[in-house]
TrEMBL record:
<feature type="binding site">
    <location>
        <position position="39"/>
    </location>
    <ligand>
        <name>FAD</name>
    </ligand>
</feature>
<feature type="binding site">
    <location>
        <position position="18"/>
    </location>
    <ligand>
        <name>FAD</name>
    </ligand>
</feature>
<keyword id="KW-0285">Flavoprotein</keyword>
<feature type="domain" description="FAD/NAD(P)-binding">
    <location>
        <begin position="9"/>
        <end position="169"/>
    </location>
</feature>
<comment type="similarity">
    <text>Belongs to the ferredoxin--NADP reductase type 1 family.</text>
</comment>
<dbReference type="InterPro" id="IPR023753">
    <property type="entry name" value="FAD/NAD-binding_dom"/>
</dbReference>
<protein>
    <recommendedName>
        <fullName>ferredoxin--NADP(+) reductase</fullName>
        <ecNumber>1.18.1.2</ecNumber>
    </recommendedName>
</protein>
<feature type="binding site">
    <location>
        <position position="83"/>
    </location>
    <ligand>
        <name>FAD</name>
    </ligand>
</feature>
<dbReference type="GO" id="GO:0004324">
    <property type="term" value="F:ferredoxin-NADP+ reductase activity"/>
</dbReference>
<feature type="binding site">
    <location>
        <position position="47"/>
    </location>
    <ligand>
        <name>FAD</name>
    </ligand>
</feature>
<dbReference type="InterPro" id="IPR055275">
    <property type="entry name" value="Ferredox_Rdtase"/>
</dbReference>
<feature type="binding site">
    <location>
        <position position="373"/>
    </location>
    <ligand>
        <name>NADP(+)</name>
    </ligand>
</feature>
<keyword id="KW-0274">FAD</keyword>
<feature type="binding site">
    <location>
        <position position="366"/>
    </location>
    <ligand>
        <name>FAD</name>
    </ligand>
</feature>
<dbReference type="Pfam" id="PF07992">
    <property type="entry name" value="Pyr_redox_2"/>
</dbReference>
<feature type="binding site">
    <location>
        <begin position="373"/>
        <end position="375"/>
    </location>
    <ligand>
        <name>FAD</name>
    </ligand>
</feature>
<dbReference type="InterPro" id="IPR036188">
    <property type="entry name" value="FAD/NAD-bd_sf"/>
</dbReference>
Length: 470
């Protein structure tokens, strides 16, 4: 059967914003399409559920609009299914005319710094997963350090620094699970030092997120006036970008004031490039930085000037990285699946227009263009990728078994306890009920077996993999 005689069958891998926006764009282009949306975790919404900080309800509210998209009859959610483990790419290709990967970037970019492997040196992504109640990370987090360094001046660095600096009770109106509240309650950090290797005009965070630091009654933000310097390039940047100017103005205001005497100090340092995480007995005991010049580049001052900071933990917030997908090419240097306008490139050597694309395989979101940009930016990715897919629609390699039941049969044969969209409604109601007991909107469930059990309306003991007798 050719795909032109029936509805197009498309698999989307990853039920975060990128995958859901791709489903939306696809339905708008072809209302007859039939989509299966696969998700490794038992619940959908990806980064919104497991990346956005709990005290950012404004961003988390995007879930409401994604809900409406997942309510559409053309989309079927299949959660708790790990593509590459539970289903192979070949199996997907037998059941679908096209496969779109929207697997995002959930791990930390490596930092080649002496001492990066010491105990007390953490990747920001791991910490974010912990405080967001990700089912696959440890339930506890060691928060014994009184002085902490955060490397990088992007929005993730600010999230990490803010969560480390706030009182746990300030997060009691959020969805944080009990283990995270207990962990943060025991947090001993009183000083958090955030380090940018360039100047204020080159900070990557956004003005709203910066100003928010100052709203906590337990955080004194401290900025050194000596860091508020600009060379010609930085000044030009400030002139051309309202956002950069807003950031610099805010930092300058803060650098000119006295600390208000709040319990926790959050220092924002600039022109300090980390060169070594200092250790003793295998544990972090400090951070060494080198002063960089005021021209906003990595070049040093004429004389090399180092500073040692007394910290017992270092969080590396220098950017995320995508993971390769089994069976697909991966560009190790840029950390993305090589593609052109969303079409996966099978033969990166051939130049366009002779470049060979992997027929029927597409990418969207951070796995397509790298881990930068806000959630809304993945809408543009989706539009471009779906336009490519629709242009190819007549030439797609038709699925051998396009029946919607074919995938369910495969999952049943393998004993995969998948969750679905009605199951999310059950989990959603369950978490809201947990929250209602404490006067909160929701309390997140962390344990994977409980998430699956609630979603499948079964007992946790029956929520694991089922062994099928052959
Ligand atoms: P990011 O914005 O790319 O920031 C990474 C930071 O790490 C930069 O300051 C960078 O400095 C620094 N860095 C990189 N390599 C370094 C090294 N070797 N040594 C020292 N510093 C280094 O990444 P992100 O913070 O992970 O954020 C990813 C995306 O998610 C961004 O688009 C962000 O806006 C978005 N996000 C948004 C929110 C929100 O809206 N609330 C929250 C979280 C994340 P250089 O510039 O000098 O390279």
């Amino acid at each position: 059967m050719s795909a032109s005689n029936r509805s197009l069958r498309v698999a989307i891998v990853g039920a975060g914003p990128a995958g859901i926006y791709a489903a939306d764009a696809l339905i708008k282009s072809d209302p007859d399409v039939s989509i299966d949306l696969f998700e490794r975790l038992p619940a959908p919404f990806g980064l919104l559920r497991y990346g956005v900080a709990p005290d950012h309800p404004r961003i988390k509210a995007i879930v409401a609009s994604l809900h409406k998209l997942l309510d559409k009859p053309q989309v079927r959610l299949l959660g708790n299914v790990d593509i590459g483990v539970d289903l192979t790419l070949d199996e997907l290709r037998r059941c679908f005319d096209a496969v779109i990967f929207a697997t995002g970037a959930s791990t930390d970019r490596a930092l080649a710094l002496p001492g990066a492997d010491l105990e007390g040196s953490y990747g920001a992504a791991d910490f974010v997963s912990w405080y967001d109640g990700h089912p696959d990370v440890s339930r506890s987090w060691p928060l014994t350090a009184s002085k902490v360094a955060v490397l990088g001046v992007g929005n993730v660095a600010l999230d990490v620094a803010r969560i480390l600096s706030k009182n746990a009770d300030e997060l009691l109106d959020t969805e944080i699970p009990p283990n995270v509240y207990d962990g943060l309650k025991a947090n001993r950090a009183v000083e958090v030092h955030v380090f940018g290797r360039r100047g204020p005009a080159h900070a990557k965070f956004t003005p709203l997120e910066l100003r928010e630091l100052d709203h906590s009654p337990s955080i004194d933000v401290v900025v050194d006036p000596r860091d508020m310097v600009y060379d010609e390039e930085s000044l030009a940047l400030r002139k051309t970008s309202k956002q950069v100017d807003l950031i610099c103005n805010t930092l300058e205001d803060w650098s000119a004031r006295e600390p208000a005497g709040r319990a926790h100090k959050l220092f924002l340092h600039f022109f300090e490039s980390p060169v070594e995480i200092l250790g003793f007995d295998g544990r972090v005991v400090g951070l060494r930085t080198e002063r960089t010049s005021a021209n906003g580049t990595e070049s040093r001052c004429g004389e090399r000037v180092f500073a040692d900071w007394d910290v017992q933990a270092v969080y590396r917030a220098i950017g995320y990285r995508s993971q390769p997908v089994a069976g697909l090419p991966f560009d190790d240097s840029s950390g993305v699946i090589p593609n052109e306008a969303g079409r996966v490139i099978a033969d990166p050597v051939g130049e366009a227009p002779n470049r060979r694309y992997a027929p029927g395989l597409y990418v969207t979101g951070w796995i397509k263009r790298g881990p930068v940009g806000l959630i809304g930016h993945t809408k543009g990715d989706a539009a471009e990728t779906i336009a490519a897919l629709m242009a190819d629609a007549g030439d797609l390699p038709a699925a051998q078994d396009p029946r919607p039941d074919a995938v369910l049969e495969l999952l049943a044969d393998k004993g995969v306890p998948f969750t679905d969209w009605p199951g999310w409604y059950r989990l959603d109601a369950y978490e809201r009920d947990l929250g209602a007991v404490e006067g909160r909107e929701r309390v997140k469930v962390v344990e994977r077996d409980v998430m699956v059990a609630v979603g499948r309306a079964c007992e946790p003991a029956d929520a694991g993999r089922v062994t099928i007798e052959s």
